[in-house]
Amino acid sequence: MFDLKDINKEKSVFFIGIGGISMSALAHILKNDGYSVAGSDFKESDTVKELIASGIPVAVGHRAENVENAGLVVYTAAIKEDNPELCRAHELGIPAIERAVLLGAMMKGYKYPVAVSGTHGKTTATSMLSHVLCEASLDPTILVGGVLPLIGGNFRDGGKEYFVTEACEYCGSFLKFYPIYSIILNIEEDHLDYFKDIDDIIDCFSQFVAKTPKGGAVIANFDDDDVIKAVKNSPAKVVSYALNCKECDYTVNNLSFDENGYSSFDVLYRGELYITVKLSVPGLHNVSNALAVIATSTLLGVEKEGIQKGLLSYKGTNRRFEYKGTVSGAKIYDDYAHHPTEIKATLAAAKATGAARVRCVFQPHTYTRTFALKDDFAHSFTDCDDLIITDIFAAREPDTGLIHAQDLAAVIDGAKYIKDFSDIEKYFKETACEGDIIFTMGAGDVYKIGESIVKDGKQ
Known about the structure:
CATH superfamily of the largest domain: Mur-like, catalytic domain
Strand content: 25-35%
Number of domains: 3
Distance between the termini: 58 Å
Helix content: 25-40%
CATH class of the largest domain: Alpha Beta
């Protein structure tokens, strides 16, 4: 079992792929804790420039000699075994660990580590919880998978009591974590390039639950039957929340939405009024996220007034229902949604605003996900009045011919396939009308379309 005490502070901790959103955050935190840190990335980026400016040496390009003086090498699941730096580390006998192992070891240094898990919604719920803890002046250390405006980035190096991080199930990464409080937002089919089926995914979450100690708690969404299955043998107490199950610990009453899709509601704790909440982010899914945050914040000792203030002032993260601008009376938004349930929730929230038309360009993310969930995608755009599908963003995968974006467009009523971003921009610019909401949606680079439309509209 790896321990931070095993790190030789006279030698550097070397991050392969240090420009990644999580790797860069861990590098900054380790440096602030007095460790020598260095790394490499395959290309220069704004993140790499920020690391260098902070005093962390970064080599552009992966070369064996980069790790010669390292005392520890950290790599992500995306790094292949034939990576020259990883190979050289093995040759020299330098310890090499996955990012998740390092993160798990770092969690042990905090009194109250919180891990936010779920097939989707992790970034939003982590950000919402982080916002509440910051507003309550608890000085949390934060690792989030998006840019949270409150902290000006994706991490915050705070005190040594409260630690909040996303916990991803892909490749079993979160099984290397050591939370005291574990949140499970939902469990659905995803990452089927790694998991066999939904039962395999539930089993992985069950193992995650088993790592939560008896003195801690699992905060679980009981609207989700698969979450209920995953927590049934939890060694820690289970704190349940739900929108539809009135037998849970935390439930909702008197729910209403304003013209922006923002909600107001009473929260009941075991049937009794606990707190009244207003949100400044749209959608029913954020009501559910807020329940998870309220339950966790209460366990962490946040007063009711602090919870109310933090939730009201939380206005979202970048790439989550992010407003980009208005063109010809149409509002342009960007959203990271790339799983059918995320898409459905985001579009439903947009429809609830009373928009004349909800329109979308969707960029599927990875071939395996698009193929495995094709039928689910086919039913996730029911609140979209005008849908364009563009080419699949490959991410970590090669194109083996398994599926094409045109195959997805063919199973969605009214969907159109357009390959080139420039043609999509032209289409929306020519057809945008007062009252439209237009989304760029997906986990790849589809956001560039909306940014270009808005930029051209200002000229």
